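One-letter codes give the sequence; the fold follows as tokens. Both lines appear below.
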Amino acid sequence: MLAVYLVAGVLVAPLAVAYSVDRARLHETAGITPVTLRVTTTGHSELRLGLPGTIYLPRSRGPLGVVATVDGPGIPDGSNGDLASYVTPHMLALYTGLFHDPTRAVATYVDLLEKELLHEWLLAETRLGLVTGTTLLVLLLVLPGLRRPSPEGGRGRPLAAVATLLAASLLLAGWQLWPSDAAAADTGAYEIPGLEGTPARGATTDSALLEVLLGGALPKVETLVDRQERQVRHYRQVADASLASQESRVAGPRPGEVAVLMESDMHCNTTMIRMQRRVVDVLRERFGADVPALMAVTGDLTTNGTAAEDNCIRSEAAIPSPAPVAAVTGNHESDTSELQMRQAGMHVLDEATQEVGGVRLLGDGDPERTQLFGATVLRGEETEEQVGARLRERALDEQPQLVLVHEAYAAQAFVGVEDMRGFLDDRGSRTRPYDDGVRDLPASAVLYGHWHRQVAPRVVWNSDGTWTLVMELDTSGGAIATPTLGHFSTPWSTPQQEASFPVLFLDRRSGLVTGYQLYRFHTDGTVQVRQRVEVGAPGGTVAPGDTRADRARR
């Protein structure tokens, strides 16, 4: 029986290939533009822009190329939506910032399309193989003569039949995949000389308008890229020197403490990813290889949650390497982003408490999704407030040390207040217990980001003698909170507003936060390493047997 299904699998393999090539589709976003990618057998690749025309690229793997079709304008509200809107100074600045290295971005999309092609082939092979194999088994049962080779023909006839069927399968698959003469010959009448010397060299277009627009846009792109690189180099030089001059101010964990590097709203900023790694290097040079013990991220690692941002996610995952990273997704992350985070080795928190780097963390992703320059919508039915309330119920049982959410609305539901801004403004002492009128919180710290602002945290004093740090994190990438087409941040921008991140210090025995140190990076590249801020009772101690770890064990 197994042999019959194996023969069937061989027979249908060519048809499964043809089916998968025809069916494989990848719906993604390139920058802010929705696109659909599919495989073609014309021996070249195409970028189809709709009415404006098509760009043909002499790039393929054998006969297989990629067709990318723009499904929508992908232009922010306020533009007139015509083709010229794509080559305005603002749009060119946006896309050169998002795709500073287009070769790597294209490779990411092609890799995803290859995976989709393999998925479709496996489905087709399984389905066709089962149907064909079952049909052959039925024929063998109904026609017993097929099971016994005749004395005259021996085994030659069955083998000849299999060979004939395989040849027919190959011919049918070839007929399905063979491009029409027009499709294979259509490579555009207008050359685009401005692309010479780039990975798109040799490209042509069928549109005279595209030829003119691209010819004028490409020199501007080169100018923008050069300007971006000069600005980034200058910023990094200033920031490196400024941080180096303040290394003596860098605080490490005291005996019995563990350090946790925090990050929020990095938005793929390559400069600040590098600077945060530089801070890690300083910490390790001064305090040892196990500092920090981990990095915790409260979301918005990406700019728009596109597949092309895989490399920046991997770069962020490497910031504390070899220490681990625990993270929740923000409103700018997509399902693709979450998958990429897991593939990069991050511990993505999704409701259950996890121990990472010796610290117990609880968190969940943002229930909302925001497109760059677009609207914000719920991913499902759960709201921010419901996420916060659900996590609190979980924390009452599991007693985590750090609770991570992305938005203040989830955090305020966890804390049990109506307005997080007012709650933080009503802060009292960080080191002296007092009756703050806030209910007990089942965590050592509650951390969130999203608002891209610098604000002091608040300490909640619990009735059992413990305390909880409630901290809003600023943007670690210096990204603008509410971008517009005339004012926005990209991965290759220098910080467009102040960027900052803290290092938290936790007492190993009690699990409580004992202090934090803030690193602030200004838009001119200067760095401010703030003094360590003390939190809680001296020494991070509470009554013996009443630590958060003790209560988690009970």
Notes: The chain has 13 helices and 23 strands. The radius of gyration is 29 Å.
